[in-house]
Amino acid sequence: MTSYRDVEIDSDAIVEDIRRISEIESPTSHPAGVNAALDLIGGWFEGTGVTFERLKIRDGFGELMKVRSAPPSGSDGGILVLSHVDTVHPVGTLAGPLPLRREGDRFYGPGVYDMKGGLTLAAAAFRRMARANIATRLPITFMFTPDEEVGSVGSRQHIEAEAARHKYVLVTEPRRNGGRVVTSRKGTGRFQIEARGRPAHAGAAHDKGRSAIRAMAHIILEIEGFTDYARGITTNVGLVSGGTGVNVIPECCRINADMRILDLASARELEARFHALKSPDPDVEIKVAGGMTRPPFERGPHIDLLFDKAAAVAATLGMTLESGPRTGGGSDGNFTAAMGLPTLDGLGVDGDGAHTHQEHLLLSSIAPGTRLFQGLFEALS
User: Do the strands 168-171 and 343-344 form a parallel or antiparallel pair, or are they unpaired?
Assistant: First the structure.
């Protein structure tokens, strides 16, 4: 009988840990906050026999941290646990629209669902095992990244290099659709489009100007028209900037667009369509940059293998593990699944409201989630 089956979980202590890390506001653009969160996480692992490695990955981002357990004798490969500490919520969210608070089974706060709750569960499970001197069959490496919310632009090479040394990958992103884990995700792309026209006085020389904003308005509608729900393709222009004054024909306009697709064939098609965008005004120049940022996370035999192992562990705990429909949100699990590594995502807390002012986790998901992590750490071989 493995030790995780009847283990008592101190949910209140774990909630306190989630509270402490969520009190540190850590949007991707705030390296000091990201690094402060890593400092706190590092303290959780003190005294467990692990080794630490922290890396500066790129200017403008916080650090990346790896926490490694000692490899058991004769172990082959290992378990890689992927988590990110950055959030989308800007500094000031705690003092404004989303303070930390408990309401019944809900615990609200920026990043508690995506994904500070999940990373806390995984760390708590490991600490329980270390303190009880419970051995694992495989070494465990935790990787905490600082830039997942912007596509892991600096972390990707480190994730893929580390994953290649491991046998399984567990991702602490939140659960979906009523507590289901994630076994497939859409691929993602990001594009930056710039229009450059000709400035002129909006009153005295209107006819001499060539509006970059006007040209970009046509392009925005064209991009939004790429969306095809039947094919699982969505596009969104989420950022727009341009112009210098209301009385000046705007010389420049810039937009950022997001793309989600189901398969690589659609990715190639959409990349070509983005890079073929043309201005409706020949006197306005258009430049397009960007492309795929995460490959599709497609369910295959390598994913089924790990899901079946996890479902068997869950069954010994009296739990039924279910996977939800393919989610539109990407994660670092997209990279490892595309490498052919057995990857199981969405193992974190249950809840809702990611990236909104209603973000919350369900307190009732803490104990079973922690117990499942410990079961996986002990059982995977």
Answer: parallel
Is 2 within a domain? no
Q: Are residues 35 and 144 in the same domain?
A: yes
Q: What is the arithmetic mean of pLDDT over 231-260?
A: 97
Question: Which residue bears the tokens 């020949």?
Answer: 282
Give the count of domains, the chain.
2
Tell me: the pLDDT tens digits for 84-96?
999 999 999 999 9
Instruction: Find the Cα–Cα–Cα–Cα dihedral 89, 124, 352, 171, rounded to 10°.
Output: 80
Residue 109 DSSP code? -
Give the tens place of pLDDT for each residue, 306-335.
999 999 999 999 999 999 888 888 899 999
Residue among 82, 89, 84 nearest 29 (CA):
89
The helix/strand count (H/E) of the chain reads as: 9, 16
Q: Which value, in Å, is the radius of gyration of the alpha carbons in the chain?
A: 23
Residues in the chain: 381
Residue 181 structural domain: 11-185+297-379
In a domain, residue 129? The reply is yes
> E strands within 18-78?
51-56, 63-68
List the structure tokens of 23.
């009190």
Q: Would you say 153 and 116 are in contact if contact means Cβ atoms under 8 Å apart?
A: no
Residue found under tokens 């430049």: 287
Residue with tokens 């965008």, as numbered in its chain: 277
Predicted pLDDT of residue 338: 95
- What is the C-alpha separation between 266 and 186, in angstroms, rounded? 11
Q: How far is CA 82 from the centre of its chain?
A: 10
Q: Report if residue 4 sits inside a domain.
A: no
Token digits for 103?
Answer: 């309401």
One domain, residues 108 and 160:
yes
Peptide bond into 115 cis (omega under 30): yes
Q: Which of 47, 87, 91 is nearest to 67 (CA)?
A: 47
Q: Which residues, at least 6 apart from 62, have a Cβ–Cβ distance to it below 8 Å?
A: 26, 30, 31, 32, 33, 34, 35, 38, 85, 86, 146, 147
Supply the pTM of this predicted model: 0.90
Q: Which residues pair with 54 in a beta bridge?
A: 65
